[in-house]
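User: Here's a structure from my thesis project, written as structure tokens. My advisor, Dr. K., wants to see whether a designed sequence matches the one we expressed. Can you design one independently, without my sequence as a hint?
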């Protein structure tokens, strides 16, 4: 059998259009394809591979747990799940954890919990969910409707009701939308897919204040920002705002699928026995790997290292921009960064991604106008330097084409 890109067209549902490159092995922040071409990984599996590829702590956890027990069911609990939940609650505002398999599942649980809480406490009229344009919360029908990108939710028939949107960072629009019928507000504390948009301090604090005024739960989707990505364990810690519910996935497992919804005891009480569940959620294999990832990231050295690496990236982008004048700004925080294309190159983010691949660099986009970078949180400094050199060559190719 020829295992190549052409086989994809024969056997896979055509909802993706992957590159011709098929990686076969990785080590740290470097990856090799079927032809043994080397790439530096500035993509991190879309902010998932927080410790790069084949990190010893994760490999060891997987091997050790793989020889013990993989899966039970939620008829029984297991040690890795309990240990991980305790570590998460010890490190955050939360008292209780629900484990799922992905960010979308964690968000689905958060939204169902918010609706159930409002119904139990306030009655049947309190159903409105507010979210923000260009937000992204997953691909289930509920979460994709709450996400603020119609292109992802249109075309599947009637959508879940009582979901409204306004612009991120527009506090006046939000204030006009929220009312005593609002049960929850879901937001990213730094928009990822929508273009790497940081919240203003007035906006995010104003959202919290208005949620309190109208007895609405504030849900932070930290699927992309969580587990060290912004330089703190979770982004909310540096914003001066604490949510009622938080979702985490992506980096939580360092590449192994796992998600979690975390909240307070008072709110968690409303997901009574039988109200929600997951066959694989909280399985021992995922939780053992996630525990190793969480322990490794949640240290002062790694978190401080994220901020140090951010400055190296920003300095590198500035140097490239001085020479080629392609970016209007660099957005984001920590190692969730977006280089915004200026008017001369508007809408051409994918061109830069393709050129980067040609030069042995893996990158991402966030929309058509932003080149996104979400590398390993522990990427070696020399890999940053070499990756930026490759990116400069890609920029030169696009500029000179």
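Assistant: Designed independently from the structure alone:
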């Amino acid at each position: 059998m020829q295992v190549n890109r052409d086989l994809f067209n024969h056997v896979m549902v055509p909802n993706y259009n992957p590159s011709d490159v098929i990686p076969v092995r990785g080590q740290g922040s470097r990856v090799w394809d079927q032809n043994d071409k080397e790439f530096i990984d500035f993509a991190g599996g879309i902010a998932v591979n927080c410790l790069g590829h084949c990190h010893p702590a994760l490999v060891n956890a997987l091997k050790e747990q793989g020889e013990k027990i993989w899966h039970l069911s939620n008829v029984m609990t297991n040690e890795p799940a309990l240990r991980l939940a305790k570590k998460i609650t010890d490190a955050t505002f939360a008292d209780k954890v629900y484990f799922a398999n992905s960010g979308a599942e964690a968000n689905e649980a958060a939204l169902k919990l918010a609706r159930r809480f409002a119904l139990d406490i306030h009655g049947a009229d309190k159903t409105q969910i507010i979210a923000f344009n260009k937000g992204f919360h997953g691909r289930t029908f509920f979460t994709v409707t709450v996400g603020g990108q119609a292109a992802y939710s249109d075309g599947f028939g009637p959508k879940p009701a009582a979901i409204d949107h306004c612009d991120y960072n527009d506090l006046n629009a939000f204030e006009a939308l929220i009312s005593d019928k609002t049960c929850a507000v879901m937001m990213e504390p730094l928009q990822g897919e929508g273009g790497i948009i940081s919240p203003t301090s007035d906006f995010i604090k104003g959202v919290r204040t208005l949620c309190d005024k109208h007895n609405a739960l504030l849900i932070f989707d930290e699927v992309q920002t969580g587990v060290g990505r912004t330089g703190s364990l979770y982004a909310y810690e540096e914003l001066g705002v604490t949510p009622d519910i938080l979702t985490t996935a992506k980096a939580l497992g360092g590449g192994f699928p796992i998600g979690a919804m975390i909240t307070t005891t008072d709110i968690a009480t409303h997901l009574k026995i039988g109200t929600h569940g997951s066959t694989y959620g909280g399985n021992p294999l995922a939780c053992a790997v996630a525990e190793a990832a969480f322990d490794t990231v949640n240290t002062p050295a790694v978190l401080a290292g994220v901020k140090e690496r951010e400055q190296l990236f920003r300095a590198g982008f500035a140097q490239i921009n001085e020479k080629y004048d392609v970016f209007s700004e660099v957005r984001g925080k920590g190692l969730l960064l977006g280089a915004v294309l200026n008017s001369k190159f508007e809408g051409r983010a994918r061109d830069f991604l393709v050129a980067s691949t040609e030069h042995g660099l893996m990158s991402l986009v966030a929309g058509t106008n932003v080149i996104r970078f979400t590398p390993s949180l522990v990427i070696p400094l020399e890999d940053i330097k070499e990756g930026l050199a490759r990116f400069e060559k890609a920029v030169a190719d696009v500029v000179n084409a």
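When you compare it with your expressed construct, this may help: The chain has a mean pLDDT of 97.
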